[in-house]
Write a structure and sequence with these properties.
With about 180 residues, the protein is an alpha+beta fold. The protein has one domain: Beta Polymerase, domain 2 (2-Layer Sandwich). The protein is about 50% helix and about 25% strand. The protein has a five-stranded mixed beta sheet with strand order 1-2-5-4-3. Strand 4 and strand 5 form a beta hairpin. The longest helix is centred in the last third of the chain and has 34 residues. The two termini are about 25 Å apart. The relative contact order is 0.13.
Length: about 180
């Protein structure tokens, strides 16, 4: 990101949050898939043991970071889900990537990691989405989904307005 900051005059990353999935959570995920708790099943069926969330200021920053990751010679992108172009039915938006990242021990070993790249507004919504929906073990009532999607659209509009505002500010900076 230092190269990006030098070229563009700012760092697009507001903050980064990482986590390792707990053993209990791994076991629970395998149980839901009717799989035994073995190393082979963990490697095959649990793709988010390592999770990293990259939160940006502006929507354009999300795609700039995706581009940086795509060009990185050290990161192997296995899969991507663009929930920005295709939001979930509750309005959840984020850009997800399953990547392999090198860990240098005696040899280089690649570890799978789930990246979530989103704006601050998307992060706000994702936190609320999770808190509101964790109570539902089964299907979410349609009227609730519709209401959540409607509110998520409001947050998406805010993201667009902040990007527009940043564009205007950048024009002023160039003229000074």
């Amino acid at each position: 990101m230092n190269d990006f900051a030098r070229k563009h005059g700012y760092n697009p990353v507001e903050h980064v949050k990482g986590r390792l999935k707990s053993v209990d959570s791994i076991k629970s995920k395998l149980r839901k898939k009717n799989k035994e708790f073995t190393k082979e099943n963990i490697n095959k069926h649990v793709k988010d043991i390592v999770g990293v969330r990259i939160v940006c200021s502006f929507l354009s920053d999300v795609f700039d970071i995706v581009s940086v990751i795509n060009r990185s010679p050290n990161i192997i992108v296995k899969q991507r889900e663009d929930y920005i172009a295709n939001p979930k039915d509750t309005g959840y938006m984020s850009y997800h990537m399953q990547v392999l990242v090198p860990v240098y021990l005696q040899d280089v070993e690649y570890v799978e990691c789930e990246l979530q790249i989103r704006t601050m507004a998307m992060d706000f919504w994702a936190s609320l989405d999770h808190k509101l929906l964790y109570k539902f073990e089964n299907d979410i009532p349609n009227d609730l989904k519709e209401k959540m999607f409607e509110y998520a659209k409001t947050i998406q509009e805010l993201d667009k307005k902040m990007l527009d505002l940043n564009t205007i500010i950048q024009k002023y900076k160039k003229n000074i």
